[in-house]
Structure formats: structure tokens, C-alpha cells
Batch of 3 targets.
Target 1
Amino acid sequence: MNDTHAPRPGHMDDERLAPHLEAAWRDEFVFELRMLDVPGDVIGDALVTADTHVAESGETAQEAFGDPKIYAQEIAGSTSRRVDPRLSVRTVVGVVAGVAGTLGAIASTLAWLDGTPVRLSVGMLSGLALALVVAGVLLVRSTWALRLMKDRTVLAALLFGAVPAAAVVGLIAIGRDPVLEGSPRLLGVLSVVLLAVNALTFWLDPDDDRILGPGDDRRLSRTARLGAALSTPGTVAVICAFLWLVN
């Protein structure tokens, strides 16, 4: 669940470091550098350099540097430093634990509110498997997925949103025969454990590759680490509280 790469990472830092660059040009430039796995501090240096030139020369970024995608490729070619695009085992475990913990927490909350056992059907288990597959594709092929989201938004929304959601609903509707039945409390405890694993994972490995300018503090603050760790558990807590309130 926790995002490992946002489509516009460090957007506020982009504006802070390069206030004189046109927003559209700057966003395209940063996006392309991110897709080329250029580290955040190198991106920051490139932004500051470009912004200084534009401010002193009076030129626009397009006039001074040309197409932002091509210029980003030139910057990437001038440095050998790269962010490792491969996912760590810890990250994969954290995301899978977050997905399973979220679904388990919602299912156990609904069953507890209804006063019934948790009944897992063939369709539910198949839907969970499909959700994990989609999450896995987004993780393993994150660069491809982000490019698709940017360049072909409707197609990406269908591939990663509408189609899997419809398939999950269809699987649940078709496969209603229960194969597992258990205590909502037991599933709830298991879900809390999984969400704790998710939180611990992203506390230890918060995927810190912020866009940094010269002299910026490279240490990630405790507040930022806590936000990364609690994003999924916090969202699940809000959902479960809402289900309880409307019950």
C-alpha cells in the first residue's frame, strides 16, 4: 500500500528549489529524471542550476534548455549515479502485509459488527490473490506503470483500477461458497499484526530519495518516517471507525 514511487515526487521541493522555472517544464523535467533513476540530490542540483540560469538570463527554460525530456536524458547521461530500481525483500513483504492486513481488518470489522463468523469464500480468496498480483505488477514494473499513468491516463485507470476492481467484484459474486470460517477477533488480531509489519517495514525503510538542494539536510525527520510508517495502518483505522459509526 505505501507508495514507493509517486508520479510527482518532492513537488513542493521542486517549487522551492526552482521558483523561476515554468511549472509544466519543471514537472516534465523532474518526472523524466525520476524515470531514469537519477538520485534526488542530483535532481536538486540540476534544478538549482537551471533556475539560476533562467533567473539571470531572462530566458524561459524551454528557450535555454529545450525539451525537458531530452534535457533530462542529457543530465542523466552526465552522471553515473543511479537509484537502485530493484525492490528490497523488506519492501515487498511490507506491501503484501499491508494489502492482506487491510482486507483482513475490513472483513473482520464487518463480521464483528454483524455478529457473525468471518466467512471466506472462493471468490474472496481469488479476489485477494488478484489484488496482490496487481500490487506486485505495480511494484515490480513501477517505472512502466508510472509512464503509462502519465502518458495514457485512461488506459492506466482501466488496467490498474476499473478492470481489477470489476474482476474482484465478479469473483466474489461468482464464488460465494465458503471455504474458511473463523473468528472475527482472531482475524482482527492477525490483521493488526500484518499492519504492524507494514508499519515497521516503512519505518525502517522509508524509501528516502527526496529532491535536495545544496546544503539541505539529508536526514529524514522522525515525523516524516512516522508518516510513512503509519500511512496504511492509519487509513485502515479510519475505514474501520467509519464502518463502526455507520453500523
Target 2
Amino acid sequence: MFRNAAVVTAMLFANVCMAEDWPQFMGPNRDDRWSEQGLIEKFPEDGPKVLWRQPVGLGYSGPSVVNGKVYVSDYQLTSGDTTPDPGKRNHLEGTERLQCLDAKTGVPIWEYKYPCTYNISYPNGPRATPTVADGKVILLGAQGHLACLDAESGKKLWSIELTEKYNAPVPQWGYSSHPLVYENLVITLAGGQGSVVVALDATTGKEVWKGLTASEIGYAPPVLTKAANVEQLIVWDADNLNSLNPKTGQIYWTEKLKPDYGMSIMPPQINDGKLFASGIGPVGALFELDQKKPGAKRVWEGTTQRGLASVNSAPVIVDGVIYGTDCKPGIFRAVDVKTGERLWQSTDPISTDGRPANSGTAFVVKTDKHSFIMSETGHLIIADLSREGYKELSRAKILEPTSNAFNRAVVWSHPAFADKCCFARNDKEIVCVSLAE
């Protein structure tokens, strides 16, 4: 179904879902591939068919879809100003919540909620997409509330306040690292001395192992791969790119990769033995994973003239090309994997006026035929991405941009793709649109 490293992660994630589900951030294998067939190739003139809309509160976190249920988290604001300022923490009072909705109708089935005071920058709700595996839902709130719930009933099985357990400060932009389930472990970034990353027993919440110390934990979700015939957990903190044994936390290798402001955000992307990670700075690098013993060799580094510096949205790697947004000047680029050479650029996936957008955001999901792109403008785009250029086939506005960033309205939430549908949200509603041909 998937190629190269994706084949390995598909096997590692076999306990997470069936192929048609979207159980976590960026899909079954955290690589933004969708294997569904029979999909629309051009939107009708009036846009895709809207199957339902359901009100939600504030949130950057994307939805997950498993076994006919949609899981989406939000923040119910009671007081405070949400106007964002990168250098300022906003103080808000409200309630964090996880809703379970019927995937066919949008009707709420259950909810889990708790009072939560925010003291973070860009405070528009939780960041981390719920992770669904083995009948459980793992929720990580913006202030570090980690909870495991029964996926069917919403009953709380266990919960932990990461800041208290690990004596950890809340990151400037909140806890954002989408939890990872590996075998019977919940792996997440925590913080504190020797506990940048922790692995907890999925049944009890008890700590199994912890590891790494860094100046800050960063925001990037951990990812799994296999190289040198060894399963490796890749953790990118604010200082280094690290490879660990996912069962024990043993460190295999570490490579320095330090973005500005502690903003390691994108999940490192792995394809055909190559690993790419980048952030604001511009800081980025392409590594060759050693296939004889665990290790990584830096092939090239990003500069203002080479590569791309991704921030809010992870790039995808297809047939030797990296496709993604470069935060400054805020433009969509194609980059050669082997050399870092920029092949072409376009503002179309992130803008409607032809101008670059600071920290421009576009979430790309590759199918067998085309790519679906969720633009920060609220448009869903069907496009062909190739080494030769960007070819837009169709676009439709499915959401209003409701968040504020750099004095413009944006949608900064990764959608879910399942059951031949797209599930997308802003700060007011979640919508389900049909993508069936």
C-alpha cells in the first residue's frame, strides 16, 4: 500500500486502525498518504456535497476518524482575550473538551471535559490531534493534561498532568506533540530533566521509561521508522534530532538541529532511507539513515537559497521531491531530495491574492492519483504536484478562516480523510464533505 519507510510504519501501526480510518495526526502512518479509491477529481461548480456541520469551540487540533466515530477536541472559552502575540502568553479561563461525534451525521455521542486555565501564546485551543488505538483515545491538552479514554463510551481510564509529574514548564505555544501509540505504550513529549520524551503504559498510565534533556521540549510529534533492521523512535527536541529504542528509551544516535525559538514543529519525514526535518531559522537538513547500524549522516543543510523551512505544516516526500510550505517568505515549494535544490515555487496553495503569507500553511495529503491540499484560506484544493510544477485541478471553500495570525484570518488545523470524506474544522464548526466520485 505504501512504499519504502511507510511500509515499515504501516506494520508498526497495525494495531492503530484499519486502512480506511484516520486515527491520528497525518493519518495511519503520519505521512499524509491516503489509499482510498473512487475519489472525486474535480469539484462540482457549487463545491463538494456537505454531509453535515457541527458546532465546535476553539482549537488547532485536527479530528481523528475511527470505526464510524469522529474525535475532535476544543476549548470552551469563558473569559480572556485570544488576540495572538508570539512574544506574549494569554491568560484564559475555560474548559478543554474532547467530543465524539457520529461520522455519518455529526451528532454528538459523548464528551469528556475539564476546567483548564490557559497561559500560552496563540491560545486558540488544544493543538494535538487525538490518537485512537486499540479501543482507546489518547488526548493531550495545551496545558499538558494527558488522558486516556475508552473510545466507545468516553470513560476516563487514566490521566496525568505532565507539568506536575515531570516538573516541566508549559511551552510558550502550549503542548503540541501529537501522542504516539507503539505496542502498549503511549509516547509523548513531557519536559523536565531527563524526561523530554516519556513512554507510559497504555492500560495504566504508569511510566515505562523516560529520556532526553533539552533546553526546551519543542513541539514536534515523535515518529517511528525502521533502519539498520532496528525499530527507531525519532524525537526532535528544541536542540537535537534523536533516535531511541521505542521499547526502552535507549539512545541510538543524536544529531544537532536547533531551530529558532525552540520551534521544532514538523514531524520528521522519512522516505526511502532519507530523513528530512526543518524549521524557522531557516534550519533544516536531509539525513541518510545508516542501514548497517543505527546512525544518520547529514547530506545537506537548508539555507535561504536551498531547501525549505517548514513550520505549521509538514511537507510530503514523493518520488524524490519534497513538497511543502516555507515559512519565510511564506510560499509553497518543491525541493529535490538529493541536493536540496529548489525546483519551483507557488503562492496558490496558501493564498488567494498571489502574495506570500508569513508562516503560510497548507496541509498536503497524497492519494494514488492526486493531492488534496487544505489551505489556510479555508479552501480544499485538488492538485497535481510533480517535479515539473504545480497544477491546480479544482478548489472549493469549505470553511471560513476564523483564527488570527499575523493580522490575517487562517485555518491552521489538519483535516482528517476517511470514508471518502474530508473532516475539517475551524474555531466555530467541524464540517464533513463528500469526496466520493
Target 3
Amino acid sequence: MDQQQLCEWDAVEACLECITSCSLEDGECVTSCVSTHLGEADELWKSSLCL
């Protein structure tokens, strides 16, 4: 696995950890986790973990 793939998986893992801390009814929390860890739609898979 190359460095970029490792960064992508780190971002996914961080996002999933964040989502699991959200309430099941809190869609805003889930949206925030995705935006924070995976980025907006045009920046998907970019994460501060890989900068």
C-alpha cells in the first residue's frame, strides 16, 4: 500500500470513529464528521491527517 492509500484509510478510520461518537438521531454530527475527516464532495478523501 502506498502513502496516499494509507492516508485515505486513516481518514476513513478517523471518520468512522467520529461517527460512532454521534447520537443515532444526530445527522448534523455525522455530517460534521464526514466534512471534517473526508472533506467536501470536491475534496473527498483529503484529510488533515495527510497534509
